[in-house]
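My convention is simple: the sequence line spells out the residues, with the fold written below as integer tokens. I include a record here:
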Amino acid sequence: MSRTGRELLLGVGGGIAAYKSADLVRRLQDHGYLVTVVPTPASLNFVGSATWEALTNRPVYTQVWESVHEVPHISLAQSTDYIVIAPATADLIARIAQGRADDLLTNVLLASSCPKMIVPSMHPNMWLDPATVANVATLRDRGFTVMNPEVGRLTGSDIGAGRFPESAAIIAVLTQLVAHNSDLIGKNIVVTAGGTREAIDPVRFIGNRSSGKQGYAIAQAALSRGANVRLISANCELAIPSGAHVTQVESTEQMQVALAEYFPSCDVLIMCAAVADARPKVLSENKIKKSDFDSIDLIANPDLLASLTHQKKPGQIMVGFAAETIDLKSNAQAKLKDKGLDLIFANDVSGGAVFGSDQTAGTLLFCDGPGIEILPTSKDTLAHELLNQVVHRLG
């Protein structure tokens, strides 16, 4: 099994702000990027290769003459989807503008045709120097996205334009850059999230421990890639992703009604919600007294995914989830086949693992090929990996 995702090369220049890029690596990973760091030799005076290798779980190359048989500047250029240089010093910006190739990072830049973004960080006098101003203008003319540095305190007591931006600001600009290459523009995606509840009486219900975090992460990721998103949310206490169309439901029956309305016109259904398998046979109009609470007769809920399979049109993609405590893969494979899914994510929830957490792990299984092992990662990262597979199947 292999791991795939959106590949991003992070170039680190030789400025004091290099240490801030350690946080940037983590935040990029949270947004679904698989990060490879290429530091300039000068930057190693601030942050060593061991730090980058530990954060990315990937080897770090700094010289063209390392692993020559792999031709690293070409292989790295061809394998990455985006290049971000943060921080970029005045010297590094000048060398890029001149088209020089005197270290591995500048070689990769010249060999790559992917979108490139530069995050400058330097003393205000250097940022405002006519040479730097001209170099930045040159790079922007060539298609580079060059952020303006923030105004604030720098090394020592100096204050001015040149401060390294916060990770969130960098990722916001990167998101805009990526949006120009969005792969889900015009696609209608329905995502279910949370867990349905089946009322016993006015104050009690049968429910589950699903928080909805994974479904909301998928909705947010799909929005960032240009999709029209309908989020069917069951009992979630989470911030609504900006831009999503939301239908709030409580019970399995209400979710079934919402799916009947939105499934026929969607391109992709991602069934992330944990749907209650059964409901009380009789709903009490009044609160049941503790002394009368002897037993509850249950009746099976409809199998929402199985019912939708019969309505599936050519080209529609259906994604399911399987939370298991034993026989993870065999149970997930059976569900994949029985419900006519295109892919399914299976995870082990023994002992309450995953529920309510920002992290997840498991296996992606496909109807038409080998699966992908998902090592412990954020739910944001899994969201983008699922969408990568969806895009592949949409063609």
